[in-house]
Amino acid sequence: MEKVELKPGIFWVGVVDWSIRDFHGYITPRGSTYNSYLIMDDDITLIDGVKLNHADTQIKRVSRYVDMTKIKNIIVNHIEPDHSGSLGHLAKLCPNATFYITDKGKKGLARFFDIEGWDMKVVKTGDTLKIGKRTLAFVETPMIHWPDSMMTFAKEDKVLFSQDGFGQHLASAQRFDDEFTQCSSWAELEDAVWDYYANILMPFGTLIKRKIDELGTLGVAPEMIAPVHGIIWRKEPEWVLNKYMEMAQGKTDERVVVIYDTMWYSTEKIAHAVVEGLREEKMDVRVMSLKANPTSVAMKEFWRARGCLLGSPTLNNHLLPSVGKFLTSLKGLRPKNRIIGAFGSYGWAGGAVKQLIEACDAMGLETVDPGYQFNYRASSVDEEEAFKYGRSFALKVREYHKQF
Ligand code: FEO
Description:
The chain is of the alpha/beta class. The chain is built from 13 helices and 24 strands.
């Protein structure tokens, strides 16, 4: 196994999950990684576990560097099972280790494992741990991503072990941003950041902003950011910090995404006409058919655009289920600072377009009411009207975007 060294004496001992495509319902077309780190100092310290079915790989990697009975500290930054799954094995293999964890982490971990007999020390923001020539500082980051979460800062090396924060679901043979972008593009890496933030961290923008400010106040100025998913920010930690701050403040592109599904291709025909209207106004447009794209990919495009046009025909007085699923996910992610319109066909009674507008209103999003609906077949007159609707929506998005 290749040795991956972040800084002298700090090693990556995680796992690349090349095959995961469904991460508790979040579709991950690029796979993921579960990163874990080993610090070789007077008191050997392991940071984070991995998913249970990959425990063997983590143990094998760690064992390349150290007899595991010599591990003195295990830092548990986050207890979600993709990072705590291997802790049961580690507790057995590292009998001399103390676990460092937040109070909520300890209580939560007791629901996942029988922790009787584990030596556990609760830490909070401001606490430090001297492990030899290094000092580790802990910063609680509740709800980024769970209530238990914290980050650990290796002060002398200036490495921030940021658990879920600044991660990406991105399996790759490269471990660092500068390596990855030599083989792939920066655009692909940036897209993975947007995707991850949209599907996991979107509800926590206010907290994220506050935490990034707090890191500054605490003197945490990382030269390297090592998350638990994806590549490590060795060359551009500032870029990802700034990107998170921008997203938390509602910044995105002046762009519209059209997200729709269709029954008999009437709504799809109107989606095409709406796109033509948007383009007529020189608006940047993405189109997401929910037949062709999973919810999570559409969600990323939603988050990257200032405006969204949602399309659904009416089925039994309701939304098409695929569009309803998207809306349910969106509601849970508590979006902000986006403007929404809607369109769709109906037969004998409408309902879908009104429901789309009302649902987005209830989420606190800006909406353009009424949406555009039409009976049965999309006639050439309907297409012309939809084209105009697209044009007028583009102008509204452009105006709305000016405030950000
Ligand atoms: Fe990657 Fe919240 O776990």
